[in-house]
């Protein structure tokens, strides 16, 4: 069995392409390579790592969607470049870019529209991840209700799908969401 | 949390973007680390050998010596390094634990030295990885057993006030403790030998008397042999009762192999006394006399070598049992085959499968 070995592009190139400093890239790469010595993350390792942060629930479905969002070239594995580009957008990108990324996450089949089914899948994945230890205890129809609320808010022309413009528009007008987006500044 | 996964924390926090647009309330602020300093290399000088690692690596396990502020006690201001006067070889394993999250036990290390180092650095041995855990446990057990043996040997040297019973038991178990014990030891040994020789000589043909044909000595000198047997059995019975009295745990003593051998050795005599001349049972009684030969096993109290042989057999009991089992399987298979193969011919000796067992056994053990 040949192990997939992947070497990332040079440090300088990544410095240019992402908004991380050299030192930050070094720290990120060390952590990445420690957990994935072969240089790429496959979906199982991804799920494994993510589940360790959410031990009380089942984070595998959400991790699956996350993996697809990080894996921009859809080759089944996330290399360090994919990883660091994604992180660069999420942590250092503009609000527009972040919202774009979130839309991409929700749009499971990447067709440019979020349907109710896709949203329901995502919602269920998030609820699964939270597990049964939430307060107050969530009922089983909670995901569906949540999706309804979301669509009522986002779907302006009531055509049953949410496009990227509707999404970004609505989020920019929502104070809570804007405030939450600011929190990403100090994560690394 | 595994060691390296802590480095993925920014990623986990970034992934929270997924539920932000759907959340009903604004997200709480992420906790920031109080003194967030840049990661730096620290030098650990262990008896001259310098190890270097990132400070973050050591911080992964804050309840150990290296991960907590306890290491500051070992900080050397002039050389700007942490000096530990410990074994650098074992320290390798300790440091690898921080790096990889797995603690390995190297085979060549002495178990006690390893344990001491782990204790010094505040690492509990239970987190040894599965790959090395068996080895570690085995070595620990061997060490504990050896310590126990040593303790038992050392116990002889100190003699607190023991009760009469305890003295007796010690005398029985270890004949070199007192002269009485030694005398008792030799006397019982002598009588075991006499008893065995008697049993053997009993069956030797003694020479013909004028009026009768050749008969074994036992039948010629019945009274003499009977007296000898009685004497031996009396000595053995007294010995058994004395041991039973002196044993610290009578129940355990009665269950031990040696005491069972004692009982089996003297029982035929008493059974013979009880059943006098009942014709039916005397046939069975004669068979019981065979058990007198077990007296020879009483020698194992006198011979360490025999005891070692016994322990060896006991410790390979499972392997020997398996050997027996596989031989039995083979015997049954071949006996069946032989039986059915010869079934056609009328004059075959293999009248049934059990009847073919003898042939199979004799052939398989190459006796012929």
TrEMBL record, chain A:
Keyword rRNA processing set for record: no
InterPro entries, sorted: EF-hand-dom_pair, EF_Hand_1_Ca_BS, EF_hand_dom, Recoverin
Domain EF-hand intervals: 58-93, 94-129, 142-177
Keyword Metal-binding: yes
Family matches, as SUPFAM superfamilies: EF-hand
Subcellular location: Cell membrane; Cytoplasm; Peroxisome
Alphabetical keyword list: Calcium, Cell membrane, Cytoplasm, Ion channel, Ion transport, Membrane, Metal-binding, Peroxisome, Phosphoprotein, Potassium, Potassium channel, Potassium transport, Repeat, Transport, Voltage-gated channel
Gene3D superfamilies: EF-hand
Molecular function terms from GO: calcium ion binding; potassium channel activity; potassium channel regulator activity
GO aspect biological process, one term: regulation of potassium ion transmembrane transport
SMART domains per UniProt: EFh
Membrane topology field: Peripheral membrane protein
A single GO cellular-component term on record: peroxisome
Family affiliation: Belongs to the recoverin family.
Name of the protein in its database record: Kv channel-interacting protein 4
Provenance organism: Aldrovandia affinis
TrEMBL record, chain B:
CDD domains: BTB_POZ_KCND3 (cd18419)
A UniProt-annotated Pfam family: BTB_2
Residue ranges constituting the BTB domain according to the UniProt record: 40-139
GO CC entries: dendritic spine; neuronal cell body; postsynaptic membrane; voltage-gated potassium channel complex
Taxonomic superkingdom: Eukaryota
GO molecular function (one): A-type (transient outward) potassium channel activity
UniProt xrefs under Gene3D superfamilies: 1.10.287.70, Potassium Channel Kv1.1, Chain A, Voltage-gated potassium channels. Chain C
Subcellular locations according to the entry: Membrane
Signal peptide range: 1-16
Gene Ontology biological process terms, A to Z: action potential; potassium ion export across plasma membrane; protein homooligomerization
Coiled coil region boundaries: none
Keywords: Ion channel, Ion transport, Membrane, Potassium, Potassium channel, Potassium transport, Signal, Transmembrane, Transmembrane helix, Transport, Voltage-gated channel
Transmembrane region(s): 180-201, 221-241, 253-271, 320-341
UniProt-listed InterPro entries: BTB/POZ_dom, Ion_trans_dom, K_chnl_volt-dep_Kv, K_chnl_volt-dep_Kv4, Shal-type_N, SKP1/BTB/POZ_sf, T1-type_BTB, VG_K_chnl
Membrane topology: Multi-pass membrane protein
Record-given protein name: BTB domain-containing protein
Record organism: Aldrovandia affinis
């Amino acid at each position: 069995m040949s192990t997939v070995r992947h070497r990332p592009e040079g440090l300088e190139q990544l410095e240019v392409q992402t908004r991380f400093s050299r030192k930050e890239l070094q720290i990120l790469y060390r952590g990445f390579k420690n957990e994935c010595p072969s240089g790429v993350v496959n979906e199982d390792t991804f799920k494994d790592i993510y589940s360790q942060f959410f031990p009380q629930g089942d984070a595998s479905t959400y991790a699956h969607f996350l993996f697809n969002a990080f894996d921009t070239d859809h080759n089944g594995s996330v290399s360090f470049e994919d990883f660091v580009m994604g992180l660069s957008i999420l942590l250092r990108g503009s609000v527009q870019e972040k919202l774009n990324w979130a839309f991409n996450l929700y749009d499971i089949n990447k067709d440019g529209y979020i349907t109710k089914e896709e949203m329901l899948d995502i919602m269920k994945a998030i609820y699964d991840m939270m597990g049964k230890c939430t307060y107050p205890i969530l009922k089983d129809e909670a995901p569906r209700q949540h999706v309804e609320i979301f669509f009522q808010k986002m779907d302006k022309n009531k055509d049953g799908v949410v496009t990227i413009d509707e999404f970004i528009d609505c989020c920019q007008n929502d104070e809570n969401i804007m405030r939450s987006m600011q929190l990403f500044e100090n994560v690394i | 949390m595994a060691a390296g996964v802590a480095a993925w924390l920014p990623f986990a926090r970034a992934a929270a973007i997924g539920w932000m647009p759907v959340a009903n309330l604004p997200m709480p602020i992420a906790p920031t680390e109080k003194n967030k300093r840049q990661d730096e290399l620290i030098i650990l000088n262990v008896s001259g050998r310098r190890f270097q690692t990132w400070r973050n690596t050591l911080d992964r396990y804050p309840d150990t010596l290296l991960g907590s502020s306890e290491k500051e006690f070992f900080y050397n201001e002039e050389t700007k390094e942490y000096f530990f006067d410990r074994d650098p070889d074992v320290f390798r394993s300790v440091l690898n634990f921080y790096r990889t999250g797995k603690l390995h036990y190297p085979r060549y290390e002495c178990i006690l030295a390893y344990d001491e180092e782990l204790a010094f650095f505040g690492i509990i041995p239970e987190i040894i990885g599965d790959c090395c855990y068996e080895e570690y446990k085995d070595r620990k057990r061997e060490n504990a057993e050896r310590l126990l043996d040593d303790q038992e040997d050392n116990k002889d040297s100190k003699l607190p006030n023991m009760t009469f019973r305890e003295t007796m038991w010690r005398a029985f178990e270890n004949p070199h403790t007192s002269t009485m014990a030694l005398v008792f030891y030799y006397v019982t040994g002598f009588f075991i030998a006499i008893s065995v020789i008697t049993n053997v000589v009993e069956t030797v043909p003694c020479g013909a008397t004028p009026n009768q044909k050749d008969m074994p000595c036992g039948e010629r000198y019945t009274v003499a042999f009977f007296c000898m047997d009685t004497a031996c059995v009396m000595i053995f019975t007294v010995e058994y009762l004395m041991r039973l009295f002196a044993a610290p745990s009578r129940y355990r003593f009665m269950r031990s192999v040696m005491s069972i051998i004692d009982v089996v050795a003297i029982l035929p005599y008493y059974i013979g006394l009880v059943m006098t001349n009942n014709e039916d049972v005397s046939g069975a009684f004669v068979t019981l006399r065979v058990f007198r030969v077990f007296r020879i096993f009483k020698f194992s109290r006198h011979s360490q070598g025999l005891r070692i042989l016994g322990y060896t057999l006991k410790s390979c009991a499972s392997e020997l049992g398996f050997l027996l089992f596989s031989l039995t399987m083979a015997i049954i298979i071949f006996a069946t085959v032989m039986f059915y193969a010869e079934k056609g011919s009328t004059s075959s000796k293999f009248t049934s499968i059990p009847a073919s067992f003898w042939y199979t056994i004799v052939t398989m053990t190459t006796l012929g």
